Amino acid sequence: MNQMPSTLSSRFKSLRQVPAKPRDVPLSWSRIALIAGLVLAVALPFVVKNFVIFQLTMVLIYAIAILGLNLLTGFNGQFSLGHSAFYAIGAYTTAILMEIYGVDFYLTIPVAALICFAFGFLFGLPALRLEAIYLALATFALAAATPQILKSTPLSPWTGGVQGIYVLKPDPPFGLPVNSDQWFYFLTLGIGLVLAVIARNLIDSRSGRAIIAIRDNPIAARAMGVDIALYKTLVFGVSGLYAGIAGSLSAVVVQFVAPDSFTFVLAIALFVGLVIGGVGSIPGAVLGGLFLVFVPNFAEEISKGLAGAVYGAILILVIYAMPSGAAGLIRMLMAKLAGRSR
Questions:
Q1: H or E, element range at 188
Q2: pTM to 2 decimals?
């Protein structure tokens, strides 16, 4: 029995040993893929129905949350199964400020981000004593407790208790010639791009190298003068900030928040999106979001009664076919094509 924790810890450590930014894909190919993706992302809302626009907006929202989880797990090596809690805090912050205090939606986003950063930073302090599976269990407890706390009687005047809060979606500003679904898609896309650029610049900076060094070899990082405690808590805070922004956007896009919308199932879904998209890959967050939104619907179309089993089978097949995630598979295919074209 004493060997079980060490075995699980070794498996977690093997997952966090993610290669750094790949160099086998030509830079020009990466730029072409990025430009093509942006053009497609901008054009899609004008050629699809409003429900599909809503689905694509949820893809971007999940991608933002997965990106924050990737900073924590993929680049810093801290495992979290509790990011649904930060997602919920961001969503409830926006809902409460809008519907109870009449605050403009656009002002609630930075407020939700700051509150979630503070929660993440404070939770990261006691988490410094925990590693691998023990940290995952602690964050699991956070995810399990959050919906119950939101349902509690003392908080019900603000949270709405079990019934939650309905959120009114604001109209597009400045008389823009788009409907509300299109506007919030473009707003989410813009925020997601900014956060992705910030994440990339962070990882490529000196601080980013320290974050990755902590993941790869904390003893060597400490020997080089890296303040491990400070960086770990800051990354936890930044990761919570990303999840909080995603939750803030989801509150208005879905137009409803309730405790049962932020259960442990959501935390597992975000972790699944991280693994499917690619651990340690920033573009992979979008691929993970696509999986979370469209694959469950596809599973229900195959069999409504066995949707869970179909989803599980698809998940197993995808992990078997893409052990390094969808982003890793795409990089490998692009590298092969680049090699043939030389």
A1: helix 180-204
A2: 0.89
